[in-house]
Amino acid sequence: MNRSDFLKAIALTGAAAFVKTSGGMSILSESLKNNGAVDMVAVMGGEPVEMFKKAIAELGGIGKYVKKGYKVTLKPNIGWDKGPEFASNTNPELVKEMVRQCLAAGAKEVVVFDHTCDDWRKCYKNSGIEDAVTSAGGKMMPADVESYYREIDLPKGKKLKKAKVHTAILDCDVWFNLPVLKNHGGAKMTISMKNHMGIVWDRRFFHDTDLQQCIADICSLNKRAALNIVDGYRVVKSNGPKGRSLSDVANPKGLFISSDIVAVDTAAVKFFGQIAKMSVDDVAHIAKAAELQLGSMNLDKLNIKRIKV
Known about the structure:
two-stranded antiparallel sheet
C-alpha cells in the first residue's frame, strides 16, 4: 500500500465496518520498510492517548526530546470557547498525556499556552485543556498581554521580518507544537504551521499583509518545535476554524507526528482531503514554507511508519 492509499484508508476507517469489509487489515497494519530513522508516524484508529503512546514510541520515546530539568512548553490550539466535541481546539486528553510524559521524563516544568481568539479564560476552561493540564501537573500561562512577548528577527522571512513571540517559547528548553486538524476560511487549513499564529502578538499583520506567506515566515524562527503532533482524532471539516455545529465535525481518528513541519502538514492535508474537498495546492503556505527550505512536501522520499490501532 502506497502512502496515498494509506492516507485514504486512514480517513475512511473511522467507520469500523469499512475495516471489517475491506479485507485490508493486514496491509493497513504493515509499516513502510525503511533503512533509516523514522521521519513521520501516522496512526489510524484508537483513542487519543493510545495513538500518541504508540506514535511517540516509534520515535524513540519522549525522553529523546525532554531531558531532566528541562523547561518544556506545549502549544496546542486553544483558540475558541468551545467544548472538545466541537474539535475547535486540540483534544485535551492528548495534551494531558503529553504533559504527563514530559514530567515523567524529568521535566522541571511544563507550560501550556495559546494566544486565543475568544476570551482566554473561557477558552482555557471550556476547551477542557486547563483541567487536563493542571490535573497532570502542568501550568497554564496567559497570552493576552503584550508584555508576555519579545521581538525576534526572522532573517528568512519574505514578508514577516520581525515578530513578537511569546516568552514561553523563547525561554524554554524545548517546545512541542500540538495543533488540531481543521478547515479554515482564510488559510484554507489550520494545522502545524497555522498554529504558529498563536505564538505571536500581532496577528493582524498576517491578515493585512499576506496571510499565506506570513504563516510560512513565522515558521522560520530559529527555535523550531521539536515535534509537530497533529491531532486528527476529531476534525472541523467545514465552517472552520470554529465550526457552527456538530454537523461540521468528523471523527476520523488520525494522528500525525514529525519534526518536519512541511511534511506533516502535507500528510495531514492529504488525509483531510479524504474527508472534505481539499488539496495541498489549496493550502499555499505549505509550498511557501518548502520554498523557505523548512521541510519537504515529497512524502515519497520520507520514512513513514504507519500504525493501525
